[in-house]
């Protein structure tokens, strides 16, 4: 069994981006600039945004963090997004989800200029991804593909089972894995809460991508010997022995599943850091006016 070390690979991607940014600066060109919007005080969201902003600083990007109170009106938030759209110095805009209930997430995403939508959630970018056109690919699926590519995981002709059909992870990763590309060319089964024979389907999988949001959901009896496991889940589970009061668990019961696998991502240190690396790549592409072609 080999660990798919997302931390290591993300550090390598960040080092490459840092070199490219230094070259842009030396050539008198624009420094990539990511603007992040955080609404409210959700602990997990705070952690994610902080690490995105910190990563920008590490590789020489500019970043702006706009923090708003939980009570911010939808109009006020949309006005700020419009200002960022019109600010020529800002290349990428991300709005950390979830948003408070009184704000329409769809409207917020639709307001972001598609050319600055580095999370790849705008319907125009989603449509381009589905159509196989160059675009911003959502960061988590993009990060997963970069990780599979780095470790040269054989995917052609393999049966990939994706558990979870969210717009931000499950659905896009199922599309990317089914593409005629490398990594890709998988036969994909997309499962969700209404799937009746999940265990049987998982036992046929050469590759499992678990994006469910339930700790330890995928157990050893669901996994074929030699399978590749990508665990997207980040679940906070109460743990009095930790200073924070919680620990992070993936969607896969790592200790019992790992011995059966050929490759597996750990949590933390797998898909999480790759998501940030992919976001930074998208921001670089936004700054130089280029899109990613996953075909
Ligand atoms: P969502 O809650 O949006 O989606 C969860 C999916 O899991 C749904 O499609 C749901 O099905 C499915 N599901 C729920 N219960 C079952 C079940 N019993 N059997 C099969 N499928 C089930 O979650 P996200 O996609 O946003 O996130 C998933 C996990 O990944 C979370 O832990 C999240 O924190 C993590 N995450 C990690 C990221 C990273 O960078 N590593 C980035 C984004 C998310 P249905 O559609 O029928 O309800």
From TrEMBL:
Binding site for NADP(+): 164-166, 234
Domain Tetrahydrofolate dehydrogenase/cyclohydrolase NAD(P)-binding intervals: 138-287
Matching Pfam families: THF_DHG_CYH, THF_DHG_CYH_C
Domain Tetrahydrofolate dehydrogenase/cyclohydrolase catalytic: residue ranges: 4-119
Domain of life, source organism: Bacteria
Catalytic activity: (6R)-5,10-methylene-5,6,7,8-tetrahydrofolate + NADP(+) = (6R)-5,10-methenyltetrahydrofolate + NADPH; (6R)-5,10-methenyltetrahydrofolate + H2O = (6R)-10-formyltetrahydrofolate + H(+)
InterPro entries with a match to the protein in the record: Aminoacid_DH-like_N_sf, NAD(P)-bd_dom_sf, THF_DH/CycHdrlase, THF_DH/CycHdrlase_cat_dom, THF_DH/CycHdrlase_CS, THF_DH/CycHdrlase_NAD-bd_dom
Amino-acid biosynthesis recorded as keyword: yes
Pathway(s) this gene product operates in, as recorded in its UniProt entry: One-carbon metabolism; tetrahydrofolate interconversion
Keywords associated with the record: Amino-acid biosynthesis, Histidine biosynthesis, Hydrolase, Methionine biosynthesis, Multifunctional enzyme, NADP, One-carbon metabolism, Oxidoreductase, Purine biosynthesis
CDD domains, per database record: NAD_bind_m-THF_DH_Cyclohyd (cd01080)
Transmembrane portions of the chain: none
EC number: 1.5.1.5, 3.5.4.9
Subunit structure: Homodimer.
Function: Catalyzes the oxidation of 5,10-methylenetetrahydrofolate to 5,10-methenyltetrahydrofolate and then the hydrolysis of 5,10-methenyltetrahydrofolate to 10-formyltetrahydrofolate.
Family membership: Belongs to the tetrahydrofolate dehydrogenase/cyclohydrolase family.
Protein name per UniProt: Bifunctional protein FolD
């Amino acid at each position: 069994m080999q660990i798919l070390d997302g931390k290591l690979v993300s550090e390598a991607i960040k080092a490459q981006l840092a070199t490219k940014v230094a070259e842009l600066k030396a050539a008198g060109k624009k420094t990539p600039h990511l603007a992040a919007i955080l609404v409210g005080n959700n602990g997990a969201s705070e952690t994610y945004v902080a690490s995105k902003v910190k990563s920008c600083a590490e590789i020489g990007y500019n970043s702006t963090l706009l923090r708003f109170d939980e009570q911010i009106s939808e109009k006020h938030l949309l006005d700020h997004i419009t200002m960022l759209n019109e600010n020529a110095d800002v290349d990428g805009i991300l709005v950390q989800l979830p948003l408070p209930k009184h704000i329409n997430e769809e409207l917020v995403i639709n307001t972001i200029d598609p050319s600055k939508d580095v999370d790849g959630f705008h319907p125009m970018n989603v449509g381009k991804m589905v159509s196989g056109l160059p675009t911003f690919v959502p960061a988590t699926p993009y990060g997963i593909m970069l990780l599979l590519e780095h470790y040269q995981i054989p995917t052609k002709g393999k049966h990939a089972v994706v558990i979870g059909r969210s717009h931000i992870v499950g659905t896009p990763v199922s599309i990317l894995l089914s593409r005629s590309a490398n990594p890709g060319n998988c036969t994909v089964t997309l499962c969700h809460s209404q799937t009746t024979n999940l265990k049987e389907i998982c036992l046929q999988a050469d590759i499992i991508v678990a994006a469910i949001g339930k700790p330890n959901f995928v157990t050893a009896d669901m996994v074929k010997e030699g399978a590749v496991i990508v665990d997207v889940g980040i679940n906070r589970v109460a743990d009095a022995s930790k200073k924070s009061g919680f620990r992070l668990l993936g969607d896969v019961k790592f200790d019992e599943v790992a011995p059966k696998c050929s490759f597996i991502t750990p949590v933390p240190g797998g898909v999480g850091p790759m998501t940030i690396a992919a976001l930074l790549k998208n921001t670089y592409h936004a700054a130089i006016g280029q899109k990613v072609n996953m075909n």
